[in-house]
Each structure stands twice: as C-alpha cells, then as structure tokens.
C-alpha cells in the first residue's frame, strides 16, 4: 500500500487556516499509538534537557512532533528536516502563521548526507529508519550531530510483525518501507557501532496496540488505496472504531510488552 500519497493529500487538505492544521495534529495525537509512546518518552526526557535546548526532528513529515515539542517548552529551538520539499514548505508556512518561525524552522535535507557536528541536545526520529537503506550512515550522522551527552529517540517497526510482516516471504504493508523492522539486538548493535554508548529499546504495539493499528490505520489505508472517495466514509468509520482504539491505546501505553510490532529506542552519546 502507498502511504506517502495519503500523507500529501492530508497535508494539502489541512494546509489552509492554522486551526485546520492544529486540528489535524490533535487528531493524530489521539489516533496514532506511536504518538502516545513518543509523547510519554518526551515527557521523561524533558527533565534531562537544558531549558534552552536545540532539537532536531529528523524526518519531520507533517510536523506534528515539532508542534508537540514546541508546545512543551517555548525556549526550545527546533529544526525539522525532511526529504520531501512540499512537506517542509507546508510546515514552514503553518509555523510562520502560528508565530513560531523564530524558534521552529524546516528545510529539505537527506539524512544520509545530513551532518551538523555537535549541534543538538535531542534528535527525534519517528517512523523514518524503515524508509532508509543506509541506516548505519544515518546513525553515524545523527551521532555526530548530537552534542556530548545528547539523546536520540527513535520510533520504528520491530521484526516481530512490524509493517504487518509475519513471515519471511511477506512484503511490507507500506510499500515505501525498505525493511520490515528491527530486532532489539540489530538496532542496538548498529547504534553502538555509530558511537552511541547507552541504548535502551522497548517493544510497543503489543496485543492491544496491534488491534488498534489494524482498526484505525491498516483497514482505512487499504480502503483509501482503492479510492479516495472513501474519505467521505471515514468520519462514520471512525465514529464507531475511534472510542475502541482509545481504550486499546491506553492499555498498550501502560503495559510492558515482551514482544510487539514496534520499537521505541533511546540512545545516548
């Protein structure tokens, strides 16, 4: 299934008045389980960051995590980078209209070549690494771009059913993925080779999260890949399944998972 065209359609639809974009971010925060886990991790890291922190949103996409971090601390300076020019321009317009352009900026960058030595206290990368083959190159670049003691926070699919792959011969549910997911051992070893000396990885999307993902992401995306006319039906679909997904997301957030289709990784320089 193609996910990027749907993201671009959402970006265009919500690119008008700022309240539309804010509404999109609010809905994504509620709907996407990975946003729940990332927000929880960011709240824990908040106490470790300096009051005037420099943060990189590596693969900023629609900009929802840059928005979240900008709201957490008005003194943080956030830079969002993404390979998609349309997305970065759209984010720049929204944050400018929202009066945040002095502390939140966006630009086009390729993470395989991006490198700004000793510039950031925190780097956030959400659902990015599964799109990049040269992952170890990116990990080295991100390590170089962190200040001493800096932190890298990654959300990515695991090899235990991430990208909806359950057998070796299965293909990823998302066509843009170049890998189906990481094992904890694999991503830890790669981050260690890149220079990170303390890596902690936790499973996300356990049983409740996996059910929630199917109800709120997999099935709607499959319908939209058949025809965008299903956008008309989505409000009615989510009216039924959205309350169910909220309950499932809550339990996925508070439970500890011995396995799961997602990984939340914290690495320190």
- What would you say the CATH architecture is? 3-Layer(aba) Sandwich
The whole-number mean of residue pLDDT values reads 88
The total count of strands amounts to: 7
Q: How does the overall form come out from the CA principal axes?
A: globular
The H-and-E topology, N to C, reads as: HHHEHEHEEHEHEHHE
Biggest β-sheet strands, sense, barrel: 7 strands, mixed
Low-confidence stretches: 169-173
Highest CATH level, the class:
Alpha Beta
Q: Which range does the strand content fall in? A: 15-25%
Helix content: 40-55%
Name the strands of the widest sheet in spatial order: 3-2-1-4-5-7-6
How many helices in DSSP terms?
9
Distance between the termini: 36 Å
CATH superfamily: Vaccinia Virus protein VP39
Rg result: 18 Å
Overall domain count? 1
Helix vs. strand class: alpha/beta
Write the layout of secondary structure elements.
Elements: H1 4-13, H2 18-31, H3 33-45, E1 54-58, H4 64-72, E2 77-82, H5 85-97, E3 104-108, E4 120-126, H6 135-145, E5 146-157, H7 184-193, E6 198-204, H8 207-226, H9 234-254, E7 262-268
Parallel strand pairs: 1-2, 1-4, 2-3, 4-5
Antiparallel strand pairs: 5-7, 6-7
Helix pairs in contact: 3-9, 8-9
């Amino acid at each position: 299934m193609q996910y990027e065209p749907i993201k671009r359609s959402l970006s265009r639809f919500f690119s008008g008045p700022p309240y539309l974009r804010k509404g999109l971010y609010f809905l994504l925060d509620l709907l996407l389980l990975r946003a729940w886990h990332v927000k929880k991790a960011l709240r824990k890291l908040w106490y470790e960051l300096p009051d005037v922190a420099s943060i990189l949103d590596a693969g900023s996409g629609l900009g929802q995590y840059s928005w979240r971090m900008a709201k957490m601390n008005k003194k943080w300076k956030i830079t969002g980078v993404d390979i998609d020019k349309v997305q970065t321009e759209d984010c720049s317009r929204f944050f400018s209209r929202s009066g945040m352009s002095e502390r939140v900026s966006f630009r086009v960058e390729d993470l395989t070549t991006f490198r700004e030595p000793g510039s950031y206290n925190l780097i956030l990368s959400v659902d990015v690494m599964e799109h990049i083959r040269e992952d170890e190159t990116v990990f080295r670049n991100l390590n170089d771009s962190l200040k001493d003691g800096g932190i890298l926070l990654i959300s990515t699919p695991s090899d235990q059913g991430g990208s909806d792959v359950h057998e070796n011969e299965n293909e990823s549910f998302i066509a843009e993925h170049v890998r189906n997911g990481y094992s904890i051992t694999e991503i830890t070893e790669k981050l260690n080779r890149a220079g990170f000396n303390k890596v902690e990885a936790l499973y996300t999307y356990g049983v409740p999260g996996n059910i929630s993902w199917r109800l709120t992401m997999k099935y709607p995306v499959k319908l939209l890949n058949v025809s965008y006319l299903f956008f008309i039906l989505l409000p009615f679909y989510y009216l039924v399944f959205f309350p169910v997904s909220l309950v499932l997301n809550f339990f996925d957030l508070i439970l500890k998972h011995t396995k799961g289709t997602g990984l939340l990784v914290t690495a320190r320089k």
